[in-house]
## 1
Amino acid sequence: MMKRRMTNRRLTGMHHTCTKQYASIGQQLVIGMLCSTLLACSADSPDQNTAALNQPYPAQTGGTLISAMPSDPSGMIGMVAGESASLAIGAYLFNSLLTFNQDLDLAGELAESWQVADDKKTITFKLKPGLQWADGKPLTSADVLFTWQLIIDEKTHSPYASDYQLVTKAEAPDAQTFIVHYAQPFAPALESWAHLQVLPKHKLAGQDIHTTSFAQKPLGSHYYQLKEWRHGEYLKLERNPKSVLGPANIDNVVERIIPDPAAQFLELMADNIDSMTLDPITYARIIPSRPALQAKLNQYKELGNSYTYLGFNLKRKPFDDVRVRKAINYAIDKQEIIDGVYLGLGIAIASPYKPGTRWSNPNLTPYPFDPTKAKQLLAEAGYVDSNGDGIVERDGKKLSFEVLTNLGNKQREKTTVIIQRRLKEVGIETRIRTLEWASLLTNFIKPGDFDAVVMGWGLSLDPDQYSIWHSSQQGPGQFNFIGYNNPAVDKLLEQGRMEFDPETRMQIYHDFAKVLYEDSPLVYLSAGYGLTAIHKRVQGIMNPVPPAGVGYDSHKWYLPEPLRRTQIQAE
Amino acid sequence: MQRILQNPMAITGLCFIGIILLLALLAPWIAPYDPDAVQVKQILIGPSAEHWMGTDGLGRDVWSRMLFGGRVSLLVGLVAVGISTVIGVILGALAGYYRGWVDTVIMRLVDIMLSIPSFFLILAVIAFLSPSITNVMIVIGLTSWMSVTRLVRAEFLSLTQREFVTASTALGAQDWRVIFKHCLPNSLTPVLVSVVLGIASAVLLESGLSFLGLGVQPPQASWGNILTDGKEYIQFAWWLSLYPGLAILITVLGYNLLGEGLRDVFDPRSHTR
């Protein structure tokens, strides 16, 4: 649930970066073209290091890994700042009570064990013994309690407060024990404790969280600590020898702030950064077409926990008719979108969960591309082309609607163009409108003033999707903006939240996905892959990528001495 | 006319514009493919016999899109300049003919408009309205009439002092008759030059707006949004950036050459040698 919101913000962030960058793109392109020509010349000559790069070395410590991130964090307290850059850096510095193991099951991080009481309303966490902050002070349940109080404090304005506000009472009876009480059973609670980045009470107590110097000079307990931060340029992280999970292999991590993906890629080619996330074009076309790049980069792909969809405003005609929704679903060729927009780096889905995980219903298959069936369904719903203009109508009214999507997201823009084309073939007219992200949300999504949208959901690891589908979540600004209202689904979602047993829960969410499938309140377009390129000098990376993602065990990565940079080029 | 044909700049400009106009007008007949036909099996193919200018990120034929995009760009240029010229001529004529407070009001309005950076004004207005061809044409038209106003006013200031104008006023001709029959026809030469140059900048503006996603909306093609699509692939699909870039260059160059040529031809000082 919390992750879901984070992902929304991540989209916003991405978008703002795009618009801000317009001014300098011209310059960057020119420089970019020059650089790439120069590079191509030098890189085409056989690289004597290539052989060394492919040779496996034993795990060792030391070295500096340089990575790139698109925006400068606003502060180090991600739970307060509420933006992805802060949370990403925070993940290097702070621990949570729980975490997810490589198969995405819950595991203890600060907590050694956790117990759900029989009435399912109380969770007791036991902390590991001997935990300490990077400055040597002990990390106790008092710190966890303090962090919880901070997040739910009205004055903090944390965007992630709601999950933690469900806790009616929290207590820390001794240094090792942390107990939370809920008014009613709430299964997604466990996941929320895997997201709360625990902050040190002895540094923050009594301070104003919005102005504290801690946000610039943090103190954590995780693998790394912040050594230097040049705003807008880079953040230098140094290994924390007192890390509660044991020290990481790599000595220093430098996160360079490079907003433009094209500029990041140039730096990757020039060997100035070691890793970056890629778009499908770079992953599937550019890198494979350049042997010099292939020789020094490893590419990783992992199925992301998100999907793109075409959503209907169910309160408007004609989308209140299930036959029309199904017809549109049959009329869209999902594989065409995956091939055309994601260059094959995506998969079609039939339930709102990551395929292959326990929550995704294996008995459902995505709606096939079947224009004949689509036309048939439209005819059943009373839509026929009576005047021969190629567009179907009912009672003299054309079946025509507007599809909105956010400006600057090229993949979504292309998706709408493909959809428009396919829908026209079955006699449905669509108009495309791309809007700036903030304007799309405030002027159209919040007031519910739209016909259809192409957007995406980034999901949490917990299967609870109450806020997206429950009929009570239709208010302005809430996530069920398509206006889905189905008592059967409401009931399943309520049951799912109360159920802690994984097997029973799984059945509930399989049933839920089945109802959605039959109802077709939105068209699942595709679940895309997260794509990463990492320089071959970084070894010890799990391949194939585990479900938890490529960075899951980055503390075990290492830089073999012969492959390290001779000098750090962070400036 | 003879002199226009003897001016090398004007002739070159005319040729450029002629070719582009012809191609755009004939687009539906000469385009080998439907400009909006998505072919996911043929994404980003370089120029070949089958696709002269290659295909774009959705497998659409770039040559066909360029032809149809040209229609949009040129249409926007012509209509926008049409609007600005009509406004400019009327306001300029009023200011130059009546002088006094009419002149003051209109010229201060011109000053105000000129002091606002027009591209940002257009950006703001388009973001406020919704982006569409019609809006782009109207907004460009409404924000670029100032130079025409100044030109026409200056011409009118001198024309109203001339004998034939004074004569017709003395004979009791009505204001509108003096303005439209005597002054206007004699002040149109500099306007013609500025119209031609105005089209060039309107074409550029439209491409800029479409490049930023605020002009012509997909799937309709315009040179500006073909360029935007190309930006994403500039590292290896050069044809998506080169051809629309060239088309914009040739068109703008064509109009500018023609405009300069016309100025030389009509400017009496350039013939005194």
## 2
Amino acid sequence: MEKPRIATASLAGCFGCHMSLLDIDERILKLIELVEFDKSPVDDIKNFTGRCAIGLIEGGCCNEENVHVLKDFRRNCDILVSVGECAIMGGLPALRNGIPLRECLETAYINGTGVYNPSGKIPNGEDIPLLLNKVYPCHEIVKIDYFLPGCPPPADTIWEACVALLTNKPLDLPYELIKYD
Amino acid sequence: MSETITFTIDGIEVKGHAGQTIMQAADGNGIYIPRLCFLEGCEPFASCRVCTVIVNGRPQAACTQPIAEGIVVENDCPEVLQIRKDIVEMMFVEGNHFCPFCDKSGNCELQAVAYRLGILAPKYPYLFPVCELDASHPYIFIDSNRCILCGRCVQASRDLDGKHVFDFVGRGPHKKIRVNAAARLADTDLDITDKACEVCPVGAIIKKGVGYAVPVGQRLYDQQAIGADIEAKTK
């Protein structure tokens, strides 16, 4: 029988949740017995090669490329999981949500302390994804099936969740594994 | 000796004294009812509604509702759990609660109640309101991003400290905690020794210079669920 496939992505995140996934230590060997990794930074596969059982999403949506990737994951994955605070509530990138976008960019590229930018312009190349007006949690863009909170979620949380979802068991996180920090 | 009153919570027969609230009687019987605005030593005023229980079929705030002979109280049932989850989720989306870097994380009652209710993500859209932070006081700052408008600081300052540093302004979605001064926290008579600086359930009123003193894993609610102390009482 063909192994179920897992895909992962880091949107507006810091890769900390992916680090936590690797923190399952030697259980990663058991995990690759259970599953095949598809599109993921773990194996550097850039495009989906087939239908995936589970998509793990780290980070929220701060630009149009994040939205594009997230919608691509929704189309190609049976179960989509928001992993970590950024995917669930925007996280640290969402600190900019109270500041108008233009003000953010002007501080970053023109007026900010220590900024060296002789052109005096805000970068606006066609290969640079356009920023959204604010950072959005993933479930405000597409339907998300499960949430694993934490910053990052502990390795045990990610492990428990993957095993439960792959073996068709209910995903009931115990008290000790629900953390928002 | 006050009159003993017998009633049931989740089908279990419990006893309390006349004049007690449902919350007081439940505490005395080792039954935890979640709460956020309730402050020991002050008059309860039922602003947060997290302690909602169903009394004879009707939702009531356990911190203000007095006990009566034979009442049927439901505390641990899907309907009550759903009410509490909805309320706490609204608190999360109405503020800017960035748990990952908050000084209060691990010791925060809002977070601990959410853990206990098993909330993984709020069902409501985040509002990301623009809020003020007043760090003018040398020893204390107030960050309204994290405020849940429980009113504990208002009560503590007025009733326990004998001052009137904090109060509510505005109504409905415009309601805010403000200091009783024309301008800033530094212009008030708030002292670091005031009870009002101790009672905030979230990270809205924070003492400067002491943050992150306790390592992750050893903080109050890392070790045990909120309410475990009440449940540990002998019945």
